[in-house]
Write a structure and sequence with these properties.
The chain is of the alpha+beta class and about 220 residues long. It has a single domain (about 5-195), classed as Protein Transport Mog1p, Chain A (3-Layer(aba) Sandwich), CATH 3.40.1000. Helices cover about 20% and strands about 30% of the residues. The protein is built from 5 helices and 10 strands. It has helices at about 45-60, 120-130, 130-135, 165-180, 185-190; strands spanning about 5-10, 15, 20, 25-35, 65-70, 75-85, 90-100, 105-115, 185, 215-220. The chain has a 7-stranded antiparallel beta sheet, with helices on both faces. It has a 3-stranded mixed beta sheet with strand order 9-1-10. The protein is globular, with a radius of gyration of 18 Å. It starts with a strand and ends with a strand.
């Protein structure tokens, strides 16, 4: 169970509690963690937050495409776009998420999709347009390349319209569509805000057990 009380699931089919898929291969999931959030910095320090997240993702072998503070249902949050190697076969998986941290807990909404049999076409076509010298860039948060998958302009949103079926395009579009439809239980919204890893309290505030049926499907958003 999560503190999410409403979420537009149009086009998605439930596969297990808290996990849905759609016809395009997207996987949507929601999570609640009754733990101090593991974010490397508070949301009001975006450069430090982005640099820390870039290092964490690179350490796992992936690449942070974007980390942007914002809000979900009026609660401060951070949006991330991440790419990871598939490992078992060529290609990448793309994950978009909102992490909504409070002082001693967090809610996460994730959308993810993976490349199919054809991989690298988006990157090759964009590199051919901009040229290799302008394709790879220093990471905007970490400086240079922090490791993992390289940062490049092929992942920028400006190219999505030219690649409507690419998993990164699908993940980004789904996250944009879903975000305004998310609402939280008032008890979660009333929890103390996340002040950063050094400011986290020793005693963790937890939500009381939710009532059954509190998560409902929305089709009108």
């Amino acid at each position: 169970m999560t503190p999410i009380t409403s979420l537009d699931l149009t086009g998605f089919t439930e596969r297990e509690p808290g996990v849905w898929t759609d016809a395009a291969g997207l996987v949507l999931s929601v999570h609640f963690f009754p733990l101090i959030p593991d974010l490397p910095a508070p949301l009001h320090e975006p450069q430090r937050l982005g640099a820390g997240l870039a290092q964490l993702v690179a350490g796992a072998g992936g690449g942070l495409i974007e980390a942007a503070p914002g809000s979900v249902d009026g609660v401060p949050a951070v949006r991330q776009l991440v790419k990871m190697p598939l490992g078992s076969r060529p290609g990448q998986a793309f994950l978009g998420s909102w992490t909504v941290p409070r002082a001693g807990s967090s809610t996460v909404v994730k959308v993810q999709a993976a490349e199919g049999a054809t991989t690298g076409m988006r990157e090759a076509m964009i590199m051919a347009q901009v040229g290799p010298a302008d394709y790879f860039r220093p990471h905007p948060y970490a400086g240079g390349q922090p490791g993992g998958l390289p940062y490049h302009v092929g992942d920028h949103e400006q190219w999505d319209a030219g690649f409507p079926d690419h998993p990164l395009t699908l993940v980004r579009a789904a996250l944009h569509r879903i975000t305004p439809t998310i609402t939280f239980d008032d008890r979660f919204k009333a929890l103390p805000p996340f002040g950063g890893p050094a400011a986290a309290p020793q005693s963790l505030p937890h939500l009381p057990p939710p009532k059954r049926g509190w998560f409902r499907r929305r089709k009108d958003a």
